[in-house]
UniProtKB/TrEMBL annotation:
Superkingdom per UniProt: Eukaryota
Signal peptide positions (record): none
Residue stretches making up the NADP-dependent oxidoreductase domain: 10-312
Designated name of the protein: NADP-dependent oxidoreductase domain-containing protein
């Protein structure tokens, strides 16, 4: 994340390279991040790291997402003209499918964004491709319409998996899977999974969900938001029962947990030693929560990479 500038590109190039050398093996992106600069940068860094022997392609999981409108920073054109010329006139979506001036779930649009992501990153196959924050549309579109659009998006993802363009797919959310069912932005995971089973059968490729989780935004582990087989349970429990993996975002809450961390949270990671930083303790809190496969955080500066990756030396055994 951050500004779409050459200087930020250079910082990310250094931080991604260093992260891979220290053992980080998941890269998470989206076509709209920094107006495509983030994906384009990955397309430069990853082959360089492979060539230098830092990592092999099969040792890193590359994720991206589609849903939010992606602008191309290289295009010198006003946004309205860009939308009209790039998406409307090419019939990638209809105006009524474009919600809030920023979001679309049209199958044609999602497939277009996937092709863009593959080209930007220079990848034949993206390991995990996420439908990005579909709950965004619930503020302006009837729930039944949004769920129908999600089903259409899932059908498109199954087709892309069959074509070898993605290995698996999922849904990345901010509010959708962690908020209470009474919340307007709630998404029913069990029902959405049933769409994948209807379309792809038992061999469907809907395998992963993403949601924020940290000691402040802890609902994924504590809020019984998801009904599964007639019982309400938190997202992490629901995903386990449904056979889905969970990747969590906002591990240090956009930097807010890197200082003045709650002492109770800090004390949960004595294995890190007395010199542990608040950021390290916050990371360990998330990565040792039962049910979490990977905890994501943004690291633009090498100094933060060095600090945060020190946690890798310690076990991530689930806390009881």
């Amino acid at each position: 994340m951050g500004p779409d500038s050459d200087s930020v590109d250079r910082e990310y190039m250094e931080s991604i390279t260093r992260s891979l050398s220290l053992g980080i093996n998941v890269i998470d992106c989206a076509s709209n991040y920094r107006n495509m600069r983030s994906e384009l940068l990955i397309g430069q860094v990853l082959p360089m790291a492979i060539k230098q022997g830092i990592i092999n392609r099969n040792e890193v999981v590359v994720c991206s997402k589609a849903g939010y409108l992606a602008f191309d920073y290289r295009e010198d054109i006003d946004p309205y003209t860009y939308i009209d010329e790039t998406y409307i006139k090419t019939e990638l979506f209809k105006r009524e499918e474009f919600v809030g001036g920023c979001h679309c779930l049209s199958p044609a649009y999602l497939k277009n964004q996937l092709e863009l992501s593959r080209r930007n990153m220079g990848l034949e196959t993206i390991d995990i491709y996420f439908i990005h924050n579909p709950e965004t549309q619930l503020s302006a579109v009837p729930r039944s319409t949004v769920l129908s659009r999600i089903k259409g998006a899932i059908a498109a993802m199954e087709e892309c998996c069959a074509e070898g363009k993605i290995a698996m797919y999922g849904i990345a959310t901010w509010n959708g899977f962690r908020v209470n069912a009474s919340n307007k932005q709630h998404l029913p995971l069990e029902e959405i999974l049933s769409y994948a089973k209807d379309i792809g059968g038992e061999n469907h490729r809907f395998k992963v969900v993403q949601a924020p989780y940290n000691s402040f935004l802890h609902q994924a582990a504590t809020e019984p938001s998801q009904p599964v087989r007639g019982r309400r349970m938190p997202l992490l429990h629901a995903a386990h029962h449904l056979g889905l993996s969970v990747i969590t975002s906002a591990t240090i809450n956009q930097g807010n947990l890197s200082k003045n961390l709650n002492p109770d949270v800090r004390n949960k990671s004595p294995e890190l030693g007395e010199q542990r930083t608040d950021a390290q303790a916050a990371i360990q809190f998330a990565r040792t929560t039962p049910g979490i496969v990977t905890s994501l955080l943004g690291m633009r500066k090498v100094m933060h990479v060095e600090e945060n990756c020190a946690v890798i030396r310690y076990p991530a055994h689930p806390r009881t």
